[in-house]
Amino acid sequence: MSNYRWRDSPDTIARLVNADKIKTIATQQVLLKPNEACAMIVDGRIGDILTETLLKNMAGGFTRWLGEKVGVTASDRRLLFAMTGPMDYWIPFEGQLGNGEAVKGYANLRIKMNLEDVPKLLNYFANNDPVLTREGMISIIGSEVKARVIAPCLAGCSDASELRDAMFLEKFEMTAEMEMRNLLSNLGFTLLKAFPITKPTDMELVQKHRAAVEAQTAGNQVNTDAQLAHYAQTETLTLARIELENNVARAKAKGQVTVELEHELKGLRAQEAKWDAELNYERGKMELRVDEADAKSKRAMDMFAQVQENKRKRMELQSNLNSERQAQSDDLQAQMMKLAAENNALDTNVMQEFLRQQTAQKSVDGTGVVQSSPPQAPPSQPQSTVCECGTTLQPGWKVCPTCGRPIV
After folding, report:
1. Which of 200, 148, 142 is nearest to 172 (CA)?
2. Cα separations in angstroms, 138 against 88, 169, 171, 338
3. Could you tell me the CATH superfamily of domain 87-199?
4. CB-based burial label for 24 (10 Å; 0-12, 13-18, 19+)
5. Helix, strand or coil, per DSSP, at residue 102
6. CB under 8 Å to 177, separation ≥6 — which residues?
7. What is the pairing mode between strands 28-31 and 2-3?
């Protein structure tokens, strides 16, 4: 089964097909789109009008050929295809206005066909070819449009301004609808829209040229005025310059002394500026030297402060070490004395040896301390005290050698 295309060009409007003349082995089918219609004409009678469907077994095929041989099919089968969508037709024309101006342009007619009016196309195909194109449609309606619509409408316009008026377009559309209704109805068409498109007339071209010339003339006049104003300004500047030069020459002639004084004044100002520069240079050098001395003093003071801080930390550390060592030694000796007292080994010789070692240790710790201040006179020795047991106590003793009682 193969597809049959009834419309092979966008200008094709309608086509009358004799199905009996399609002799093919394969069965033909055709697809009808929403804007396409097909009227069945069987044995001279108009049958169904179809659209938006697929026509199968339209023509051709072995079964239809066999049916024609045995005489079981219709003797005359025709298919009328037509476009039902709107189409535009451009009809060229030439005419004259009421004042005799020639007008050229195109008349645009937008026409469509109703589905039920498709069989009316048989009036056209009865005396014409089985194919209706856009050119053929224009040849049918063109002369009537020119005579009944275009010529009367143009004659009613007195000049080109009325031709461009909206009232003329409305009048043209109403005239076309009234005058073309009969012809289009016989062919099955309906007029949707009609309007003319005209080229510029001779008078409009003349007015356009006149406006261009006037604009150019006005532009030239503006340029001329600007040039004259420029010349006047140049003359004023020239006169002012000449007057200024005369005044300068007169002043130079009268003020030669003033010029010499000004020259001397400029020399003095130059010398003054030179002295100021030298003074500023020396002042800058002095400030640099002062800043350098201040920086050195500050650096020396910082170094001295750092040395004193290190010395203080070292003395503090030495003092802490001596105190810890003395505390440890006192604790150890007190524990030894206590142990000797518990074992009845505490006698006068032991106590004297203990005090001697304690005194020697304190003298060693005293010599190891670094004095941060100048040496002073040795303090006066305190008076010897007597313990409750009657033993004379020496300075620096912590425990009585006789009774072992701690000394407060």
Report:
1. 148
2. 10, 21, 22, 149
3. Band 7 domain (3.30.479.30)
4. middle
5. strand
6. 191, 194
7. parallel
Cβ atoms of 53 and 32 within 8 Å: the answer is: yes
Q: Where are the beta strands (DSSP E) in 25-67?
A: 28-31, 36-42, 45-51, 54-59
Count of C-beta atoms within a 10 Å radius of residue 269: 10
Most confident option among 15-19, 146-150, 302-306, 334-338: 146-150
End-to-end CA distance of the chain: give it in Å, rounded.
Answer: 140
SS3 for 23? coil
Rounded to whole angstroms, the Cα distance separating 55 from 226 reads 81
Contacts with 154 (C-beta within 8 Å, 6 or more apart), sequence order: 95, 96, 97, 103, 163
Does residue 195 contact residue 165 with C-beta atoms inside 8 Å?
no
Domain borders along the chain are 2-83, 87-199
State if pTM tops 0.70: no
**Out of 15-19, 143-147, 217-221, least confident range:** 15-19
Distance CA 287, CA 293 (A): 10
Whole-angstrom distance, CA of residue 240 vs CA of residue 224? 24
